[in-house]
Amino acid sequence: MRVTNNMMVNTMMHNLEKNLTRMSENQRHLSSGRRIMRASDDPIDASKVLRFQTDLSEIEQYDKNVRDALNWYQVVESSVAEVGEIMQRGRELAVKAANGVNTPDDLKKIAEEVHNLRRQLVSTGNANFTGKYIFSGYQTDKPLFNEDGTYNIDITATEYTKPPRMSLLVGTGETMQISTSGLNVFGMVDSKGAYDYMLTDSAGDQMIGNKSAIKGRLNLKESLDSQNLDIVFNGTTYSVNTTGLIGTESSPINKDVLVDRFKTAVGGGAPLADVAEVYYDDNDNLVIESKLEGNVTIATASPNFRTAKLFTGAVASKSFLSGTFALEGPNADYTTQNLDVTMSGLGTFDVPEVVLNGEDFLLTKDKVVQAFADAPLTTDPTKKLSEFADIYFDQNDQLIIKDRRFGAETLTIAASPGFNPSMQAGSDTTEASVSFPRFGFHDDHIASNQGELKRLPIYVTYGGERKAVRLDPSVNIMTVADYHTALQNAVDASFGSGKINVTLNGAAPNQSLQFETVNTPDGIVPELRIEHIKTKRSSLLEDMDGFYNALMSGEQDAVQTFLGKVDAHLDRVIAQRADIGAKVSRMELIKNRIADNRVTFTGMLSESQDVDMAKEIMILKNAESIYQASLSTGSKVACNQFFAFCHVESSRVYVFFRAWHQNVRSDASHSIY
Questions:
Q1: 585: exposed, middle or buried (C-beta count within 10 Å: 0-12, 13-18, 19+)?
Q2: What distance in Å separates the CA atoms of residue 199 and residue 181, rounded to the nearest whole number?
Q3: Distances (CA, A) of 363 to 326, 327, 385, 414, 589
Q4: Angle CA(576)–CA(581)–CA(585) in degrees, nearest 5?
Q5: What is the end-to-end Cα distance of the chain in Å, rounded?
Q6: What is the pLDDT of residue 651?
Q7: Is 628 exposed, middle or buried (0-12, 13-18, 19+ CB in 10 A)?
Q8: What does the alpha-carbon distance between residue 163 and residue 151 come to, in Å, rounded to a whole number?
Q9: How far apart are CA 263 and CA 270, in angstroms?
Q10: 493-523 burial, b for 16+ CB within 10 Å, e for fewer?
Q11: E strand map for 471-533
């Protein structure tokens, strides 16, 4: 093969460029400190780098959340500590006031200090961190107290027994509750209001669909020994043995004992436990829940066991055929069998049995499903079975043909040796209802309490939404009928017309409320829950007011009573401080773990992404030596090429001048002659 000078020069230039590119790459690594600048540099390590960077970003956010939580808890802890200090000072004043040697003027001076302590308690209860009120639970945009010391937030059974909390994400799948309920610090007076005589909380937290129950509260701090707690279940009376059910303030009736008495109540020769579940729910309500499905009649005869009647309703379901479909053997030859499917209201779909011969050919599940899916409607072949039904094999290898319509539709198919399915009928939506038959009220109750009924909302949960339903304050409400109309209008305004019906049960003068969902869309759970505000009063502030009034009136017995109460408040505050301290300790551990994780992931990121400086410098020096050598070698090739070029060009110049000279001489001789 002939090697020309041009070939040598081109090869030289190509190698020079390669060496220069390698040097440029090394210099880029050194100047940036990064081994991977593009995904193409190292696809595997590049994916690791992206993952580590994501992990570090998450760690930084977790660290921010933990620091915010620690700052939040610092404010909460100092505020709770301040409440404790105020109550301790209140206790000291009570001891001083109870010594029996104070003059009326002395007591009034003590009362003035108590009044200022109460005002400080309200101020402390409204403490905030970055504009969020720390004791208001999830309602952080509202201060806990009004100026008069009443609660500014709405307190239903949910807020009291299961107060919603604010949470922060402090790790992968790990959350930490950071809010402290003001109710746990300042207490609650479960006072009776207008709604307490009209309804009770309706939650059945452990109930599943299509079940009935009654629920309510019994006072476990009083004697139930002589009360009639019998339960009427579907017309059968179950007698509850109340012997020995005696409770006091210091020794309430044991819940487990009470539950067992209801379970063992006998009716018709059988215990109540055979037909009903008896338990306390998460809101501390005694629940008697039917084991039977449907709207079952359950009632109690006790005037003190004031219950709500619940029916959860049931979501609509779909009809379907199911059975084993033979894919091989003599029964798998469907060419002589009838697999046509008939659907009520639609007609018959003609399944092509000719393509389903599992005796002579391989028959797969996919082929079976496709054959049924493509079956045309006999009255309109453009319509296929797959448009109206879902066809599939379930995890038990049963062929399922499920109607896409909700309700009790009918699907039929002729029995055959290879496929003899059974049909499960669907059902329509069963609406949920809540009634309060033990809470009758009359016109006088409405007229005398219309101000409170307008001021305080009830909370209704429907379709996953919990809303405060408030009556129109401009409407005059004097009778039960007026209230019923105003309540229905308020419910419609909150959820839309035709979603929840409010009706009156019973006859005047005592009538009761019933709520029922209507027109719940198919496939949606008909959820319904009713709650009312339990209180607006703090037990701590109430006791401080009682102490103040006792000092102003000189009642020594009331002062002594406050001493016992203040100790209970101090115990509650101490318990909250201990709970906060435990959470702060956990936060500190999480903070340390996050710091360790940051170091670990930063090291792994550096290992995958950063350049080894010493190694890269050696590579660069080696590349420079190679480049210098290639330049040296290339210069020799270029020099030879240049001399060859000069030789050729000089020959051409010689020939040119010689020809020119000859021409000049010829022209000169002609001019002489």
A1: exposed
A2: 25
A3: 9, 6, 20, 21, 61
A4: 150
A5: 59
A6: 55
A7: exposed
A8: 15
A9: 10
A10: ebbeeebbbbebeeeeeebbbbbbbeebeee
A11: 500-507, 510-517, 528-532
- Structure tokens, 223: 């004697």
Q: Judge contact between 458 and 467, C-beta under 8 A.
A: no
Torsion of CA 552, 557, 560, 561, to 10 degrees: -100
State residue 121's pLDDT score.
Answer: 95
Sign of the alpha-carbon dihedral angle for 168, 171, 174, 177: negative
Q: Are 236 and 268 in contact (CB under 8 A)?
A: yes
**DSSP per-residue codes, 310-362:** EE--B---EEEEEEEB--SSGGGBGGGS---EEETTTEEE---GGG-BTTTS-
pLDDT at 22: 73
Peptide bond into 381 cis (omega under 30): no
Q: Are residues 307 and 213 in contact, defined by beta-carbon separation less than 8 angstroms?
A: no
Euclidean distance between CA atoms 32 and 114, whole angstroms: 68
Find all residues with CB under 8 Å of 114, minimum gap 6, and list them. 90, 93, 544, 547, 548, 551
Q: Among 394, 405, 348, 347, which residue's Cα sits nearest to residue 369? A: 394
Name the stretches of the chain with pLDDT < 50. 670-673
If we measure between CA atoms, which residue out of 551, 372, 428, 452 comes closest to residue 150? 452
CB 521 within 8 A of CB 506: no
The torsion defined by the Cα of 251, 256, 262 and 266, in degrees rounded to 10, comes to -110
In the chain, helix, strand, coil percent, each to 5? 45, 20, 30
Residue bearing tokens 């319904």: 528
- Residue 129 belongs to what H/E stretch? strand 128-129
Among 220, 293, 230, CA closest to 256: 220
The token pair at 499 is 């979603």
- Using CB atoms within 10 A of its CB, is residue 330 exposed (0-12), middle (13-18) or buried (19+)? exposed
The two three-digit tokens of residue 514, written as one number? 């019933």
Tell how far CA 47 is from the center of its chain: 31
Distance (Å, rounded) from C-alpha 352 to C-alpha 40?
54
CA distance 366 to 229: 61
Distance CA 440, CA 200 (A): 12
List Cβ neighbours of 612 (8 Å cut-off, separation of 6 or more): 35
How many CB atoms sit inside 10 A of residue 50's CB? Answer: 14
Q: pLDDT at position 673, please? A: 39
The pair of three-digit structure tokens given for residue 154, joined into one six-digit string: 């709405």
Report whether 478 contacts 447 (CB < 8 A): yes
Q: Which residue has the tokens 């979501």?
A: 315
Q: What are phi and psi of 356, to 5 degrees?
A: -115, 75
- The CA-CA-CA angle for residues 342, 346, 352, to 5°, reads 45
With the CA atoms of 459, 460, 465 and 471 taken in that order, what torsion angle do they form, in degrees rounded to the nearest 10?
Answer: -70
Output the furthest CA–CA distance in the chain (Å, rounded).
Answer: 166
- Return the closest-CA partner of residue 310 out of 281, 331, 340: 281
Task: State residue 419's pLDDT score.
Answer: 94
Structure tokens at 474: 């401009």
**Interatomic CA distance for residues 282 and 291, integer angstroms:** 19
pLDDT at 670: 47
Report the pLDDT value the prediction gives residue 284, as an integer from 0 to 100: 80
3-state SS of 180-242 is CEHHHHHCCCCCCCHHHHCCCCCCCCCCCCCEEEEEEECCCCCECCCCCCCEEECCEEEECCC
Q: At what angle do helices 104-125 and 539-553 cross, to 10 degrees?
A: 160
pLDDT for position 253: 93
